[in-house]
Amino acid sequence: VAPAFTPAAAERLRPEMGRILEGLLDEVADRGACDLQQEVAERYPIPVICALLGAPASDWAKFSHWATEVFKIFNGTVAEDLPAIEAALGELDEYVEALVARRRAEPRDDLLSALIAIEEEGDRLSGEELVMLVEALLLAGTDTTRNQLGCSVALLLEHPEHWALLGERPELAPRAVEETMRRLGAVRATGRIASEDIEYRGVLFPQGTLVAVSLAGANHDPRVFPDPDRLDLTGEGSGERGPVQLTFGSGVHHCLGAALARAELAEALPRLARRFPDLALDGPITWKPPTNGIWGPEHLPVRWTVPAG
């Protein structure tokens, strides 16, 4: 399905991303303060996913609820949360199955229709595979981006000079995305299972071993990233960072929606910096509990100056 997830496909949604974000900012602009995580970041990627799949934008609240409930599976509280998780999955299954059925009958110019039509060497996605893939996109594409946007803004607010620079030079947005994801990624680790015996640096990982891989640790490896704790939006001084940050994973497990997430973040960060040039924290950030899944701010209180008149 990779051909359906090209950077060009994500770029076509840029105008819609800008419209969605500006609408969210319009709602809070005159107040001079808000919870940026709850009122902007949490609400931003879901209508984008709706536009990508051709789902009604009015259904964004359903997707947000399902993503929040399903991802409780990472909280270490499955015993008490299982009923809520299963209920959300059941509702999501029903919704996506109906959406797939409608697109089979009436294809459109959207990602879901493209996925239905994709064929590789005579092999096409089954109905079950389509539903699974769309659900993964809805959930992962929602929760990762909203948390990463919060992480990126929180980090940039620790460096007001970088926030100002991004507002003045929006062409730095792609690098700001990579650097903030490297320094403070919403996905901190991942799990892998050894498919065969692997010996690495004298240590044997027998077939079937569960390996917890630290993406955050790799993103701060001084052998790869000179001065890894420095946030560098321009590449000046230490030179351009050659290696790619690993928050999107790597190899065959590289994030399928990376181009979409990069476009969403690159559209949002400079718009926020231009709209609110003196954005600052308005209290302590409340962070979500550290889990094995996706992490970020729960609450991100900010303030800014409202222009007179």
Report on the structure:
By secondary structure, the chain is mostly helical. The protein has one domain: Cytochrome P450 (Cytochrome p450, Orthogonal Bundle), CATH 1.10.630.10. A 3-stranded antiparallel β-sheet has the order 1-11-8. It has a two-stranded antiparallel sheet with strand order 2-3. A two-stranded antiparallel ribbon has the order 4-7. Helix 2 runs parallel beside helix 12, helix 4 packs antiparallel against helix 8 and helix 9 crosses helix 12.
List keywords for this structure.
single chain, 309 residues, mainly alpha, Cytochrome p450, 3-stranded antiparallel sheet, two-stranded antiparallel ribbon, 11 strands, 50% helix, 11% strand
CATH homologous superfamily label = Cytochrome P450
Major beta sheet summary = 3 strands, antiparallel
Terminal Cα span: 51 Å
Low-confidence stretches: 237-241
What gyration radius follows from the Cα positions, in whole Å?
A: 20 Å
Report strand order across the widest sheet: 1-11-8
Summarize the structure.
This protein is mainly alpha-helical and 309 residues long. The chain contains twelve helices and eleven strands.
Topology, pairings included?
Layout lengths: L6 H5 L2 H15 L4 E3 H6 L3 H9 L6 H11 L7 H28 L5 H7 L1 E2 L2 E2 L2 H31 L2 H9 L4 H11 L5 E5 L4 E3 L2 E3 L4 E5 H5 L38 H18 L4 E2 L4 E2 L9 E3 L1 E3 L6
Helix pairs in contact: 2-12, 4-8, 5-6, 5-8, 6-8, 8-10, 8-12, 9-12, 10-12
